Amino acid sequence: MSSLDFIFNPGQIAVIGASRSPQKIGYAVLDNIINSGFAGSIFPINPREEEIAGLKTYCSILDVKAPVDLAVICVPAKHATVVAEECGRAGGKGLIVISAGFKETGKEGLKLERELISICNRYGMRMLGPNCVGLMDTHSPLNASFAEGFPNRGNISFISQSGAMLVSILDWSFEMGMGFSRFISTGNKADLSEIDLIQSCADDPQTSVILCYAEDITDGERFVEVCSEASKKKPIIILKSGTSSAGAQAASSHTGALAGSNRAYDAAFRQSGVLRAESMNDLFDMARAFSTQPLPENSRTAIVTNAGGPAIVATDAVEKYGLKMARFTRETIDRLRENLPGEANIYNPVDILGDAGDDRYRFALETVLEDENVDNTLVLLCPAAVTEPEKTARTIVELNKKHNQKPVMAVYMGGKSLTAGRSHLTANSIPTFTFPEPSVNSLRGMVHYNEYLKEPALSESEPVKLDGIDQNAVRKTLDAVFADRRVVLLGHEASDVMSAYGIQVSKTYLATSEEEAAKIGAELGFPVALKISSPRIAHKTDVGGVAIGLHSDKEVRRAYGKIMENVHYYLPDAPIYGIEVQDMVDEGVEVIVGMSRDVQFGPLVVFGLGGIYVNLLEDVSFRLASGITTREEVKKMIAETKAFTLLKGYRGKKPADIEALSDTILRTARLVSDFREITEMDINPVRVHYQGATALDVKITVEEVNEKE
Amino acid sequence: MSSLDFIFNPGQIAVIGASRSPQKIGYAVLDNIINSGFAGSIFPINPREEEIAGLKTYCSILDVKAPVDLAVICVPAKHATVVAEECGRAGGKGLIVISAGFKETGKEGLKLERELISICNRYGMRMLGPNCVGLMDTHSPLNASFAEGFPNRGNISFISQSGAMLVSILDWSFEMGMGFSRFISTGNKADLSEIDLIQSCADDPQTSVILCYAEDITDGERFVEVCSEASKKKPIIILKSGTSSAGAQAASSHTGALAGSNRAYDAAFRQSGVLRAESMNDLFDMARAFSTQPLPENSRTAIVTNAGGPAIVATDAVEKYGLKMARFTRETIDRLRENLPGEANIYNPVDILGDAGDDRYRFALETVLEDENVDNTLVLLCPAAVTEPEKTARTIVELNKKHNQKPVMAVYMGGKSLTAGRSHLTANSIPTFTFPEPSVNSLRGMVHYNEYLKEPALSESEPVKLDGIDQNAVRKTLDAVFADRRVVLLGHEASDVMSAYGIQVSKTYLATSEEEAAKIGAELGFPVALKISSPRIAHKTDVGGVAIGLHSDKEVRRAYGKIMENVHYYLPDAPIYGIEVQDMVDEGVEVIVGMSRDVQFGPLVVFGLGGIYVNLLEDVSFRLASGITTREEVKKMIAETKAFTLLKGYRGKKPADIEALSDTILRTARLVSDFREITEMDINPVRVHYQGATALDVKITVEEVNEKE
Lengths: 709, 709
Hints:
The structure is a homodimer. In chain A, strand 28 (about 680-690) and strand 29 form a beta hairpin. Chain A has 4 domains: about 5-215, Rossmann fold (3-Layer(aba) Sandwich), CATH 3.40.50.720; about 295-455, Succinyl-CoA synthetase domains (Rossmann fold); about 470-585, Dna Ligase, domain 1, CATH 3.30.1490; about 590-700, D-amino Acid Aminotransferase, Chain A, domain 1 (2-Layer Sandwich), CATH 3.30.470. Chain A is α/β, with parallel strands linked by helices and about 700 residues long. In chain A, about 40% of the residues lie in helices and about 20% in strands. The interface between A and B is large, with 74 and 73 residues.
């Protein structure tokens, strides 16, 4: 596993297309490398120049006659493949292709881009770009980009699929006093993607927080694998854009309609321990908190303030974001009571009043930081006549260093009168905000990340053992379906698949006449249910294709006729295989377990409240099938829904068998992982009884998989 | 209706407790009045001074011997009543009581505050405060506060219950380049509350937007009345804090548990056309948009950008906040195609590429502004080599003035390189943001407000006429309940109340023996339902107190015995009145209609998905009963829930009778408005049939009302 050192901290760099002309990118890149304080050798390549910026210039990288780790390519796209080939021949390890004119411009560009990739593969080179701004590493130091400016040194890495956003944030970061270890523009991601770069940043000792702006993630499974490991080392915060308009994909299953790629990203991020930023503000607010403060042990928040109103706003935010207001110990309350003015509020939030100078801030902040019931602290300050914003800033910094296990954030509400104090706070690693809500939101991110760190890593957990799985039986059923040129399994076939994976299913037999249906009913024992069997009919109830609770031979016969009549009325042309006869199963809570296959992340399993209202209520939770390997994780998945309240026994009802349900979900996840042929699946409902759980209606859609792919 | 001119723009002011000592509030207030450029007469009152700040000083306001519109009281609380009394005697019209030491300090303070109120009432004076910072009006001009600084002149009024927040925002506003017409600190709101002040600001020609920070609103009904009128003149945006921890009140009804004061505030704000800010950022972001830009006719948003990434983020926000991306006319697309580089994106968002100078911005922005399918425009700019941020800022300003029916917002993403452009934009009334999301959020506020303006005012709509209402019958039932010293109506009593208000209810009779139950069943016609009747039992199903679908004499008798057995088992000590026999009613969609009485806003009506899952699913919408007077409003209320999807006919089902349901809700609202004695009410379920709707289970809680109160 490479940490891409030859790209971020190369010994030698060639700038191919280096230029004397300040308007040219080849000028900006060379200029940036020199000015960044890069300590290695720099070789400008330009056949038309002898020397640029005081450096000897070469016709080609092949003329350098020395090893060159990294080449930055700034020549037009049409020449890029030639020079890339030369880099390979010269023994180069890394390329940064700044040049545009590749995939983003269409077919011709895509062809050129593919040539670049094949050259890299041939010579074992790694490539950033093409069509990128380049990269910066403030610790190497190296600015191999054409962007103006070099970030303040810090511990945040920012990986951006948008070059313009990278440049904007760089410019903005100076105003905010933020420091960065790396700025990386991924461009077209022809070779290196955010996955590789996250991995490299996770190994970079100078980076403590990894930020990423991504518009798409193309190798979902590898993303989960890499990030699951990386996020155990460092927080990864990603702003993923462009998912909203994707919406839920057109799909014939409930699960498909519920899923949509945004849900898959959510599930993948969750499983990988990646924090998802809701907005650009959110991304950088969290970055400031993570990059400067320790993780809070828990969410119990103390607030020290010199004003009531803003403290109420902060308290609202604590509740809104699911954190807790700390309950102070007896001792803390006594100390506060003894030392603060009588009108002060000594409970949380601690209101030290508008006439508080620095002394009072010092005393109150230190007291709450010493309280074992406090995990983190918010200091609010509003300007008033006797306020000492700068002195208090120094106090906050000092106490934060002393109590360095508990994060502190500052809300300095105001303008110019607080500028000096705010600058001191920012310069000394206290995340400082103008209004309370974003500070609490950042804290939430830290609390969630810490919870994730405390969980056992999925890779370290023993996957649950599932017995009674018969892959061959499923294979046989699928082969029969494919032989029949169908993509939807009939009810009894789906039942067979369930049984083969140890999922209890109501007994179902296909009848093709009234007589046969009545006979099967008698064998199963009344009551029974009848359901139309047709490859064209997805939602049987909607066309009058279902009858339940049939208690006698006569009722079965009548229902058979009625269903046929209904179906012929609604769908006169649908091919009908017959009617399935099913035994009636015990009462229970009806839930859905389903799967839809995401193009990036693979099988996505859904759980939620079942029945015909599933799409109406959308009371569902999602996981990647690959993440459902332990009972603990399944239980979390179940507990995220309101269906859980029903399962636990709602309003006097007996609790349902959550173990049996978990088993069904685990087996479903295994099934869809084992068979790539299964593209969509609904078990709706699964009826969860007092003991056991039964799949009542199973719909499985399949597609033949070309094994050679 | 007073516009409080004597407070905001008085002819003469007395400062009672004026001081020479710069540490004193009485100094700051006088100094502020003088420095604000106040043009009227100023009378410092201080028995120990001859002259302060060059002004003749009086012993008492009574010595002034001239009319004094406004007195600002800065003396200690214990002297405040004396000087207030003198103000009254001197013919003063308004008081601003800066002094603290009143209600906020406890019992003694409350007594003093009540004295102040009674003095004001006696002399017909209006009072701001006590315990407030004062007020500022930049147009009068007048700074009658002790805060440091005087806001830039503008058209925003800010009313704050938190003095510290007011001072903070003042300080911050300079940095933001925001202008204000008024800053008002409400303090303890002993007399003038935000309601009066909103009313006054709505009448103030210099104010275009009213902002308010409130921790509580004490006269809810008047708030709704005043704001409904004021919001038709100007947007009112309120940040209401401190509701989260209130949570849902402890209540025995479903509705009570769902309601909580936060829901009441939401319903009240909605009904009054008040926009509720979610955070402080939200409050001031919206203020900037409303105070500078015209309202968009609709939500169709165009984006012009020089960078792809940020435009995707903006597009996500447009979708997230429920706005629409504009679809350009053919003509617009052709013009863009002809005049922009080939690689530009000519659809929305219009990406004019990283090498766009001002010319390209001008062309693209003007083109989309001219498109009839565009209601508003977002301009995104990221710094690049050829970007002309300042020149483009001037272009945006110019085009915004030219196309002055369509709001334009700017997102200038970056730092120092954009400062000059940003300043020009802000100074010329273009709301300017660093990141895209808040700009879109502000736009959402404007779109919502415009939708509200287009609605007919509730006060102008003819309230629906409801016939067949018999108040006397309800009065008689309630009297019987009170005579019986009960607070919960028995089932048949509740049925009587429903019937008296023309709400169809299933027929219910009380039986006290098996025989009687069987007899009633036969009379009603089988099948029937049995339900336990006890003042102690709220949720009958939970104790086995309900049996349904009883088809015969025998089944009724067996169920009677079983219910009694169940109830004695669960609640051996509950008093049992008997068992109610009810006819079984037609199938339909089960919904809840209920009411809980909010302490501030009065009866709050709920509608939503019914049955035993109502509290689990929380698929509900709320309205104040006073707002439910038209069919249109009821239909909006119904349409906000998922239950609406079911009612319209979900998945092949026939639509339910929404007219009948609306009628039930209208009659319920009328009932709870007519009878203050009804404190809580659940009709759960109301079964909405293909034709008609029936109240199946009605629970009414009452409390005797002392008419003299």
